[in-house]
Structures are given as C-alpha cells and as structure tokens.
Specification:
Elements (H helix, E strand, L loop, with lengths): L1 E5 L4 H10 L3 H7 L2 E6 L11 H10 L3 H4 L15 H7 L4 E6 L10 E6 L18 H8 L6 H18 L2 H18 L3 H23 L3 E6 L1 H9 L9 H23 L6 E4 L3 E4 L7 E5 L2 H7 L6 E4 L4 E5 L3 H13 L1 E2 L2 E2 L1 E5 L6 E6 L10 E4 L2 E4 H4 E6 L2 E4 L1 E6 L7 E3 L4 H4 L1
Parallel strand pairs: 1-5, 1-6, 2-20, 3-4, 3-5
Antiparallel strand pairs: 2-19, 6-19, 7-18, 8-17, 9-10, 10-14, 11-12, 11-15, 13-14, 15-16
Helix pairs in contact: 1-2, 6-7, 8-9, 8-11, 9-11, 10-11
C-alpha cells in the first residue's frame, strides 16, 4: 500500500482548481472511492492540529488516549504506530516525513525520515539526515536566520539530494525553483516547494530501490499555501496556489510513474487527516511570531537553559531546575497585550523542567501596543513580528480517496488505522 498524506487538503479546492487548470493526476485521484473522516476535537481543545490528528491515524487512538498535543512529541512504547504493526506482520515499509512519529523498534522499516520539527529523532539510515537539516534550521530560525548557516545547510541538502535522487529530478527541481523566484522572489513558499519536490523524489527513489510492502509520503506544501495564500474564496485567483498545485500534481504523477516502473499493482490512498476552511468572511486572524525566542525570553527575565522553536508561533523551553520552570511558567502566563493573554502555556507532565508555549493572541494591533509581564513593559513590535493574516483554518472533517473500494462513507479519524493494516 502507498499512502500519500497530503496534509489538510481541501477537496473542494482541488476539484475547482483541477477543473480550471491542467492537473491530470489530481483529477484522476478525485475520481477514486471516497470516505469522509471526522474528529470530535475542537480548536479550543488544542488537539485540532495536524500533528495531533496524524498520530490518531498512525496509532488508532483518539487524542484523549494518545495525549500528544504539541508538535515535536512522539508516541511512547505503549502506542503501536502503523509501521510497527506492519513490522510485527513481517511487512516492510518506507516512511517519509510523518508528523510526530518515530521509527521506534520497527526493524523492517527500511527507511524513516521524521518531520523537520521532531528535533530529537534522526533519520534512518543516518545518511538521510542531510535531507532534513535545512528545513530543521529554518524552522528553528524562522525570523532571523543566519545567511552563512543557511548556505552551509543548502550545500548539505543539495549533496544529500545528489546522492538520493535521479539526475532528471534536478532539471525539474531547478525549473520549480527558478519559476518560484521569478514569481515570488524570496518568499518562503519557493524554498518550501524546492524542499518538498526533492524530498519526494528521494522518497520515490528509495521506494523503488527497496520495494517495500508499504510506503507513506507526507506532503505539507499545500497546507502552508492554504493557510497563507487562499486570499479569495475563488482559489484560482491565487498564483501561489496555482504554483503549489502544479508541483503537487507533478509529484503525484511521479508516484504513479514509479509504481508503473515497479510493475506493482498497489492500493493507493490519499488522505488529509483534517481539512481547512477559507476564512476570508471571518474576523481577522493574525499570526504573530517572536522575532527571536531567546531574545524574547531574556527581555522578560525568564531564565532558561535552551529553547526549541516549533513550526511558527510556538516553542518548547527548557530550564535548569523545576523551580526555574515554575517561575518561567508563571511569567509566561502573565504576559498580556491590550489586557488580553498573549500565550497558552503548559508545563510538561513528563519533564517538569520543560514548558510549551504558543502565541494565542490574533487580533490586529496598533504600532504602539504594549506587551507587559509583571514588572516589565515593552513595545509589542520589539519582540514579535506580524507574519500573515490566516486565510485557511482547521475544521473537524477530513477526506480519504482510494483507488480500491472497501472504505465506508464516513469514519472517525482514529479508525483509519484499521484500513491501513
């Protein structure tokens, strides 16, 4: 079985775009057997995020059972992930880019590449780490990256691509990058697209070489584009969405071509865990991100040992002692802007010297807005940057498309596990 995890795709958006543009592979998949998935998790619970819902898909457990709420957390030994289940049945796998996952004890998992935000998990075999070191650095240094380090990591990434992709993939990848630069200049979208293309090609080369019983390919490019560039209810008016979907369609085409080269008739499923809804008719929702997590914490006199930024507006912060963690938690919770809480803060149940925080303030602010914490007050824009006005938000439904029948009309997201076994 080949599982394509096209994170958060909106099915109606795919239908509209594939009818307006030349996207033959997306059109093909939209004709497959369909199943709607659902979750009872609400946005206010903190579990209506893809890194929580994908864990439900991979373990067969609801969020209140697996309790993995934050990006960068992985299941404990008591939770069996689908590739571990395959392993117990002597079935091989290649797993690529999955959120909040680890290879664990799955010895028949021939290749495993974690998502870039699960910092403590290494790729297997280790030579594949070069494929994720660049996005890992950029995810940790979202606002103020070092040009020298970026250059170093680009060379490391390109070297890994050279070893793990085919020469003809480079020609297409270069065209994707040049077109992105011409259209969007230095936008993050171009670099994310460049990474996702080469990562997908490396997966397909590995998949063809190892001939596993199962494969999972995780793709996040469309989710990013829907959140940031779905600026009109009609997605065909967004050049960024057109650019992204043409790349996704190309990747899907390469998947089909690889299966053809392998002369292997396989079940193929494409799912999203949850979908997004366009927010143009909803109140303004602004994404604010610390300019530097370290600088932000120091300015508010929060002593810490180190901090691990996550995808955008969140981070794990570590302390030397439990007492310092309690003090840090208190001060983080006391932060306010225009009289409203700035952060959601949780201290870890597993590591008492670790806290998670996330910016939950999303309203439009004046330039002179003040951020205060007990005895300290600073201008908000000294510490935080306005990144984007959100154009797509998570909702409680999802979609599965499969080239084989057997799926029900609808099922809970955790029950998808039973159809992957």
């Amino acid at each position: 079985m080949l599982v394509i995890e096209l994170n958060e795709y909106n099915k109606e958006l795919l239908e509209k775009m594939s009818s307006n543009f030349d996207l033959p592979n997306i059109k093909k998949i939209l004709l497959w057997h369909y199943c709607e998935t659902y979750t009872s998790d609400e946005e206010s619970s903190g579990y209506l995020d893809p890194w929580c819902q994908w864990v439900s898909v991979h373990t067969g457990k609801k969020s209140d059972e697996h309790q993995l709420k934050n990006l960068g957390e992985v299941p404990n030994k008591n939770l069996i992930q689908i590739w571990e289940y395959w392993d117990t049945n002597n079935e091989t796998s290649v797993i690529w880019g999955v959120m909040n996952g680890n290879r664990s004890d799955a010895e028949l998992c021939k290749a495993f590449v974690p998502d870039p935000w699960t910092y403590h998990e290494e790729a297997f075999p280790k030579k594949l780490n070069g494929l994720i070191s660049l996005p890992r650095y950029l995810s940790k240094n979202y606002i103020n990256p070092s040009k020298l380090i970026i250059l170093r990591e680009i060379f490391r990434f390109l070297f890994a691509c050279l070893k793990n992709t085919r020469p003809k993939d480079w020609f297409t990848g270069l065209k994707i990058f040049i077109r992105g630069v011409q259209k969007f200049r230095g936008s993050n979208l171009t670099f994310i697209a460049f990474f996702e293309w080469f990562s997908s090609m490396a997966f397909l080369k590995t998949y063809k070489r190892d001939q596993p019983d199962h494969g999972i390919l995780f793709l996040n490019l469309l989710a990013h584009a829907q959140h940031h560039y779905w600026t009109d209810e009609d997605p065909s008016k967004s050049p960024q969405l057109i650019y992204v979907l043409e790349i996704i369609d190309n990747i899907l085409g390469r998947c089909f071509h690889t299966l053809g080269e392998m002369k292997k008739s396989q079940k193929v499923m494409m799912l999203n865990a949850i979908t997004q809804k366009n927010t143009n008719e909803e109140p303004t929702w602004i994404l604010y991100v610390p300019k530097s997590h370290e600088s932000f914490l120091k300015k508010f006199e929060i002593g810490f040992s180190h901090v691990e930024p996550l995808m955008t507006n969140d981070a794990h912060v570590f302390f030397e002692t439990e007492a310092e963690a309690k003090r840090g938690e208190r001060r983080l919770k006391s932060l306010e802007v225009v009289g409203k809480p700035l952060l959601h803060v949780e201290r870890s149940n597993i590591n008492p010297k670790k806290c998670f925080y996330k910016c939950i303030f999303t309203e439009q602010l004046n330039r002179d807005a003040i951020l205060s914490c007990e005895n300290i007050s600073l201008h908000f824009n000294e510490c935080f940057s306005e990144v984007v006005q959100r154009t797509g938000r998570h909702v409680q439904k999802g979609d599965i498309l499969s080239n084989e029948s057997g799926l029900p009309k609808s099922l809970g997201i955790e029950k998808v596990f039973n159809y992957l076994r």
